[in-house]
Write a structure and sequence with these properties.
four-stranded mixed sheet; Ribosomal Protein L22, Chain A; alpha+beta; three-stranded antiparallel sheet; about 240 residues
Length: about 240
């Protein structure tokens, strides 16, 4: 498979489906199987196994090796990376919500991706005050009430994608940086409060896998150049579009 060019992000989207995961189980490592067994609900275990198998197949295609021998190590906050011994500088990130899975792959720049199934939230205002900075809350409450749910998921996925790109997950306070929320505005990292210049090093891009999902990708700018995005359907998965 063709590797991503400089400043290109390959985004792969598919559906996890509802079938069993017997074939996929054999592709997983021992630690992945152990993690899968810890899920309380069978549906969650199946989604994890199918999602991890899809990731292994995809990376195996890029590396031209068998999916089962793709090696991972994990950062301080659990972000997976390819083992140093792999013969490629590929960077990747994976996310799934509901039955949608999305994987972002680059040829070097750090990348994070997030998708969320959009559902009504009875405690929308409370969640917004917990997740958004003062600047973001001002934008949030200036929006028409009927658009705020979409704005919440828009902001959440943009912020989560950036945190995953940084490798810090939710260990970094969500209120420490500002992103655009309005779905009608381009996705943008406006500022990082403790390091305003850092915002220029990151690019955000919003996408919609299907009508009831929101998604975002965060990618590191290399040499100040903007990233380009290429969209693909995950082989063997149900259809989901960007």
């Amino acid at each position: 498979m063709r590797l991503p060019a400089n400043n290109a992000v390959h985004v792969w989207i598919g559906r996890l489906g509802k079938d069993g995961c017997h074939r996929e189980w054999n592709l997983l490592s021992l630690d992945e199987r152990t993690r899968a067994k810890q899920f309380h609900f069978e549906r969650d275990r199946v989604k994890f196994v199918r999602g991890r198998a899809a990731l292994r197949r995809l990376l195996g295609d890029y590396l031209e090796i068998a999916p089962g021998v793709v090696g991972f190590h994990y950062g301080e906050y659990g972000k997976p990376e390819l083992d140093a011994g792999e013969r490629c500088r590929l960077r990747f990130n994976v996310t799934h919500s509901g039955d949608v899975v999305a994987i972002a792959v680059t040829g070097g720049p750090a990348v994070g991706i997030d998708v969320e199934q959009t559902r009504p939230l009875a405690d929308l205002d409370s969640l917004a005050r917990t997740c958004f900075s003062e600047h973001e809350l001002m934008e949030f409450y200036e929006l028409p009430v009927k658009t705020r749910l979409a704005a919440f998921y828009s902001g959440w996925t943009r912020k989560e994608a950036l945190l995953k790109a940084l490798g810090s997950g939710l260990h970094c306070p969500l209120t420490d940086f500002d992103v655009t929320l309005d779905v009608n505005r381009p996705a943008c990292l406006l500022r990082i409060h403790m390091d305003p210049a850092a915002a220029e090093r990151w690019q955000l891009h919003a996408f919609q896998p299907t009508t009831d999902y929101a998604g975002a990708v965060a990618v590191e700018r290399i040499g100040g150049a903007a990233a380009t995005f290429e969209w693909y359907q995950l082989p063997g998965s149900g259809q989901a579009s960007a």
